[in-house]
Amino acid sequence: MAKILAVDDSQTIRNIIQKILEGVGHAVTTADDGPDALEIARKEQFDLVLSDINMPKMSGISLLSKLRRLPEYEHTPILMVTTETGGYKKEKSKSSGASGWIQKPFTEETLLKAVKKIIG
Q: What pTM does this model have?
């Protein structure tokens, strides 16, 4: 199964994502903000990154841009998981290299379907 990095400033959301994805066999590492996630990603390679957009210290879009500049994450799928519904942030995410978008609140089925579509 896949190694997944889940980044969200909400402990509840991180726990939900981790429980769902580990429940089907994925290995999930969590980070509570962008700088922490970037540090983890530099030390370890992940098959997929899930990131919130609105976080303190570093936004998910900034994290996405920084990850895309790392050779080992140039082609790694990165899904944005957020409450944002506005077109601007979706477009900004897409232009920064996001592989897709999961709208919060999400169901277990929605999360699993999105992950399966991206990484098989």
A: 0.95
